[in-house]
Structure formats: C-alpha cells, structure tokens
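Quick check before the chapter quiz. The format below is the same one you will see on the exam, so make sure you can read both the input and the output lines.
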Amino acid sequence: QVQLVESGGGLVQAGGSLRLSCAASGSILSLRGMGWYRQTPGKQRELVARIISSGSTNYADSVKGRFTISRDNAKNTVYLQMNSLKPEDTAVYYCNAYSFREYWGQGTQVTVSS
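Here is the expected output.
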C-alpha cells in the first residue's frame, strides 16, 4: 500500500505561481512513477505531468513550458511547480502513483482568478 498526501493548492491570480507537493509513504520502492492529474466538474480526470523511475517526464500540451514536475527522493516527495497560471488551470489536482496498481491522493483545489 502507498499513501499520498498533497499540499500547496490555493487561490492565485492569473499569471501567478503555485507549487504542489505530494508526499508518499508506505511501499514506495515498488513505485514505477508518480504524477499529477486534474479534474473539473463534469469532465474526466486528465494527466497534467508524470515522472517515471528513470527520471523521464512528460506533460500535457496545455501546460508545457509553464509547469515543471520534479521529485526529491530523500523526502519521497514529488512537486509540481506551476507558473504563468491561467484561469483554465482551475481544477482539483490529484497526486497519482503507480506500480501494479494506482494510488491517489485526496486532491487539492487550485483556483486561478482572472
């Protein structure tokens, strides 16, 4: 089992920045990757960014050049640095981790005002 605890969401004006954190605990050595997803009401959850065990990353086209995913292995934590935020980035952001199954955090609200 893996537990994920997110932090760092909030309200920010367009053009601003936020950093999300996701601390993992439990059977973390089994993890093959971690990432961030987001969801707005009435829409499917979508991948924002992912980092795999090799360190390779991938991003949704809508956030490339603005968001950066990184990890601190010593702290078992993954970060999502979000810059140049836009109102359309408003969503609940979920931390995700996967091995042979997926794990989810509780979600953190990000609201970008225009």
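If your answer matched, good. The chain has no helices and eleven strands.
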